[in-house]
Amino acid sequence: MNFRPLHDRVVVRRVESEAKTKGGIIIPDTAKEKPQEGEVVSVGPGARDDQGKVNALELKAGDRILFGKWSGTEVKIDGEDLIIMKESDVLGVLS
User: If 89 and its partner were Cys, which of 18, 30, 81, 85 is the partner (CB 3.0–4.6 Å)?
Assistant: First the structure.
């Protein structure tokens, strides 16, 4: 990928949710909500504090995360739909 996020921003690829419920009901594409889970593709170097020091991000490429429903900005890079958001928009890391 030829894109590097700046400051405290991260690039996230959505992880598709299951097309079937636990009970076996198949959910059509038109009824699905956008997943709020993703995989971190790339991270910026970190945000600067008041003294100009760069504080590194806690996230790293490959982390699976949860984020808010309306978080970030959707973009298309190299034909792939991605989301660019600030680290503060991330709710948590899945282990």
Answer: 85
